[in-house]
Design goal:
Layout lengths: L1 E4 L7 E7 L4 E9 L5 E2 L2 E4 L4 H21 L5 E8 L7 H13 L5 E2 L8 H8 L16 H20 L8 E5 L3 H12 L3 E5 L3 H11 L2 E2 L12 E4 L18 E2 L11 H8 L3 E2 L2 H4 L2 H11 L4 H9 L1 H15 L3 H13 L1
Helix pairs in contact: 1-12, 2-3, 4-5, 4-9, 4-11, 5-6, 9-10, 11-12
């Protein structure tokens, strides 16, 4: 494998790995190890260019620093991406190479699953390095815990906006019905919410329609439907100059990482009076699950209670934002930075 390194200001290490024989191209970004070894998932995605992949991994790594800090975990922030078709038939070769790449850092970075990867893929990584989490038979698929945390964040958002935790009868527009989005839809259905769903893969949306009586809407329509809560559960950057003016929801709270295309879009939500649950605070359930079970040795019940603590974290963010008259994303950053610096 050919490995190169690039200096990026405010990041500890950024490595590029390539093996042309297998068609592997990957990037590992370590943002901070102040609180402990960096931990963050591996995303497998067909980026249009290496530069696009780099910008994504840098934002994701920084987000993991803040996410782990707000969750009170003894971890720093890092992330990795594999550039290519995540439906590749050569998964074992690709992920074993990725495992070797991760192993070069000797524990500075621990990986786990993310978009386009699974616990089964992490088993291939495990054959090359012990620095991998979210393994089958241990903490496993983090999706249910991520969804649990987002559900609790949504309840906190409802408490702050409407004075009650109840989501019964509320119209929730879910963008993305993959692993986490589906589990979130299930929790919301049990809570009595009315669901509207969209996905780039219509079959995934249809699954939620059949299971939870959700209403199907198109990818384009999901931004402008009449809803109480808009839940972005796909990829990042979807809150931007084009989409924010179309939103008719009072709350934005979802599973996706890096929902704001730029920080100023958090300001735009604030100006419109839309309550934004900062994504890295809301969606920390997955990393909490893997860390508490596989690193700290907690049992499942203690881990569930830790994930439920996301509710109080969001209330703290909302109260700071209200008290200081600032957007919620700035309040979340301020709280996280107090734990890192």
């Amino acid at each position: 494998m050919i490995v190169t390194q690039r200096f990026i200001p405010r990041y500890e290490r950024v490595l590029f790995g390539e093996d042309p024989a297998v068609g592997y191209r990957g990037i590992i970004a370590i943002h901070s190890t102040v609180r402990g070894p960096a931990c963050g998932g591996t995303r497998f995605w067909a980026y249009s260019s290496q530069e696009e992949a780099l910008q994504d991994v840098l934002r994701l790594a920084r987000g993991m620093t803040y996410k782990n800090a707000l969750a009170g975990l003894p971890l720093g922030g890092g992330k990795s991406v594999i550039i290519g078709d995540n439906k590749s038939k050569f998964r074992e070769k690709i992920f074993r190479l990725h495992g070797r790449f991760v192993h070069l850092l000797q524990g500075q970075y621990n990986t786990c699953e993310d978009v386009g990867t699974s616990p089964a893929d992490m088993e291939y990584v495990l054959q090359e390095t012990p620095y991998v989490r979210g393994l089958q038979g241990r903490s496993g698929d983090p999706s249910p815990r991520t969804a649990q945390g987002v559900f609790r964040a949504m309840q906190a958002s409802a408490r702050h906006r409407w004075g009650t935790d109840s989501l019964k009868g509320k119209r929730i527009a879910i963008q993305g019905c993959g692993h986490v989005g589906y589990h979130l839809a299930e929790a919301l259905h049990r809570a009595g919410a009315r669901l509207l769903v969209a996905d780039v893969d219509p079959e995934k949306a249809e699954r939620a329609v059949c299971a939870f009586g959700a209403a199907f809407v198109s990818e384009e329509e999901i931004y402008s439907v009449e809803a109480d809560v808009f839940a972005p559960c796909a990829l990042g950057g979807i809150l931007n100059d084009q989409t924010i003016p179309r939103l008719k929801a009072e709350i934005v709270c979802g599973c996706a990482n890096n929902q704001l295309l730029e920080p100023r879009h958090g300001d735009l939500l604030h100006e419109r009076g839309i309550l934004y649950a900062p994504d890295y605070a809301a969606n920390a359930g997955g990393i909490i699950n893997g860390c508490c079970i596989e690193i700290l040795g907690w049992d499942v019940q203690a881990t569930i209670e830790k994930v439920d603590g996301i509710y109080n974290t969001l209330l703290q963010i909302f109260e700071m934002a209200r008290h200081d008259g600032i957007p919620t994303w700035k309040a979340a950053n301020r709280l996280a930075e107090q734990q890192v610096t």
